[in-house]
From TrEMBL:
SUPFAM superfamilies: Nucleotide-diphospho-sugar transferases. It comes from Pseudoclavibacter caeni. InterPro entries: GalU_uridylyltTrfase_bac/arc, NTP_transferase_dom, Nucleotide-diphossugar_trans. It catalyses: alpha-D-glucose 1-phosphate + UTP + H(+) = UDP-alpha-D-glucose + diphosphate. It comes from the Bacteria. Residues 15-252 form the Nucleotidyl transferase domain. Its EC number is 2.7.7.9. PANTHER family: UTP--GLUCOSE-1-PHOSPHATE URIDYLYLTRANSFERASE. This is UTP--glucose-1-phosphate uridylyltransferase.
Length: 304
């Protein structure tokens, strides 16, 4: 068992970097002109769930790392005076509140990535904004159930131990090749492991464990120095996994790397089938939509 008591605590992260520069090719042609992050999950775009998660965890300063054609994401989190005035004049108070809510969640700003060179490069684009502070990274394809405080737990672990922290989830062996996979050892905390290595999308049958890295990170600012010297890896891109693997192998570089093993609900909106499952699941759980929607769904399935 690996003890954690030798680590020095740090301040709690107050900023988040959210990479949103991807092309969304798996959802073409829907994403030809509309960013995939704005595809609706019931009646809110997927990216809003992510920013709301950051805000619930006390991270109220969110930097979007965008690219060409993504300005509509920034617009979503901005005020819309004309629309708001029309809704107010028409007495549509509930809709007005929902529109205003998007711009009140957090302080949202953006920086352009320019040439998309991988997740590691996208994180590096946030360096000037983050400065010399711990920070969170949230990937837009992963939605975490609001009742599961994963990010809060990760930030607690980071602050207590002065570590970089990755979110891990147990996956079936036949799916490990789809993820970065951790080499890990237990600690004195049931849901925390020490990460000693990472393998990005291992070949089938070669994964070192079934602990897959999912899209939440709580990082120390030292990761920026590592990313700057990280050579392009898999796919010719700068991989965040490669930088974290270097850090995990030598804690003197930028502190240790820990993992929080998550056992709550995670939804993948980056895959068409999983996206549809997400919409159906969350719609079915809504108090305003759920009863009628579930009844229709039962009848619909019977008729197939």
């Amino acid at each position: 068992m690996s003890a954690l008591s030798d680590q020095t605590g740090t301040a709690r992260a107050r900023k988040a970097v959210v990479p949103v520069a991807g092309l969304g090719t798996r959802f073409l042609p829907a994403t030809k002109a509309v960013p995939k992050e704005l595809l609706p999950v019931v009646d809110r775009p997927a990216i809003q769930y992510v920013v709301e998660e950051a805000a619930r965890a006390g991270v109220g300063d969110v930097l979007l790392v965008t690219g060409r054609g993504k300005s509509a994401i920034e617009d979503h989190f901005d005020a819309a005076p004309y629309l708001e005035s029309r809704l107010a004049a028409d007495g549509k108070d509930a809709l007005l509140a929902s529109v205003r809510a998007a711009s009140d969640i957090a302080r949202v700003s953006a920086v352009r990535q320019g040439v998309p060179r991988g997740l590691g490069h996208a994180v590096l684009c946030g360096r000037d904004h983050v400065g010399d502070e711990p920070f969170a990274v949230l990937l837009g394809d992963d939605l975490i159930d609001a009742s599961s405080p994963l990010l809060e737990r990760m930030l607690d672990v980071q602050a207590a131990h002065g570590a970089s922290v990755v979110a891990l989830m147990e996956v079936p062996e036949e799916r490990t090749h789809l993820y970065g996979v951790a080499v890990a050892e237990p600690t004195g905390e049931a849901d925390v492991v020490r990460v000693t290595g990472l393998v990005e999308k291992p070949e089938p049958g070669t994964a070192p464990s079934n602990l897959a890295v999912i899209g939440r990170y709580a990082l120390r600012p030292g990761v920026f120095d590592v990313l700057e010297r990280t050579a392009p890896g898999r796919g010719g891109e700068i991989q965040l996994t490669d930088a974290l693997e270097e850090m995990a192998g030598d804690a003197s570089i930028a502190g240790p790397v820990l993992g929080v093993v998550f056992r709550g609900r995670r939804f993948d909106t980056g895959d068409k089938l999983e996206y549809l499952k997400t919409v159906v699941t969350l719609a079915g759980e809504r108090a305003d939509l759920g009863p009628a929607f579930r009844a229709w769904l039962v009848d619909h399935v019977k008729g197939l």
